[in-house]
Specification:
alpha/beta, 252 residues, Elongation Factor Tu (Ef-tu), domain 3, seven-stranded antiparallel sheet, seven-stranded mixed sheet
């Protein structure tokens, strides 16, 4: 199926399970097994309200997590088991694991941890060990910690206020862990990802980051997700650390 066929293919399936992750984020499992890869995304559609891009947290069942931050997301978080949800996808380029990699580092800031779980799970299935670092403002903002413990060798937590794990940014842990891994992946705030990419450049480590921009179509037509001549929906959302650092807008 090419990108235009995906554009025209709208799935509608039942909500299988709704999980309250924290005070503002819910995870929704959909009664659908999708052929997709970590790092790809969906365009989730609420009739009469609009579409919103959503990272994929799992393929079977198809899983997304959503924060109540706007009109469309507010309606998505109000869905309950048995409701129907519509979406298009999968879109975008996924994360890649080098063939010789034996251990990877997955770094998630906020709900950027969602695709990190999917990546760590796929790595484990391929015989590659994963270590995860979760960064959040406080203990109340942490999501997908339990899920990551199932698929990762270790999970490290950092919080801005020190309410759980080490106090500070993810870099407190990343600086110590990067030497012992073959590849590094990050999704979350751009300043965090820029710091990770710069460290990986210094340490000569393979690095990929997932860049978020406003996406309206998902297939490179509207151009709203442009960043320095690239389209996040088509050229990304996953870019190598070097590609991201070459973008003047990245991290700012």
């Amino acid at each position: 199926m090419n990108r235009y066929e995906i554009l025209n293919q709208v799935y509608t399936n039942k909500v299988k399970t709704v999980i309250q992750e924290n005070y503002r984020i819910k995870t929704i499992e959909i009664d659908h097994r999708m052929d997709c890869l970590p790092g790809q995304f969906l365009m989730v559609w609420i009739p009469g309200s609009g579409e919103r891009p959503m990272s994929i947290g799992n393929a079977d069942p198809l899983t997304i997590s959503v924060a109540n931050v706007g009109k469309v997301s507010g309606e998505i978080v109000n869905l309950v088991e048995g409701d129907r949800i519509s979406y298009r996808g999968p879109f975008g380029n996924p994360f890649t694991i080098p063939k010789n990699a034996k251990k990877i580092l997955c770094i998630g800031g906020g709900y950027g941890v969602v695709p990190m779980y999917f990546l760590a799970r796929k790595a484990k299935e391929a015989g590659v060990n994963a270590i995860a670092v979760i960064g959040a403002k406080s203990e109340n903002d942490i999501v997908w910690e339990k899920q990551l413990f199932v698929v990762c060798e270790r999970v490290h937590i950092t919080t801005d206020d020190g309410s759980k794990g080490k106090k500070g940014t993810v870099m407190i842990e990343v600086n110590e862990l990067v030497e012992d891994v073959d590849a590094v992946y990050a999704c979350g705030p751009e300043k965090m990802m820029a710091a990770v990419a710069k460290l990986c450049r210094e340490k000569k480590k393979f690095c990929e980051v997932s860049i978020e921009r406003i996406m309206k179509c998902g297939v490179g037509i509207c151009g709203s997700c442009a960043i320095n001549g690239k389209l996040c929906c088509m050229d990304g959302p996953v870019f190598t650390g070097e590609e991201a650092l070459a973008m003047e807008e990245f991290g700012k």
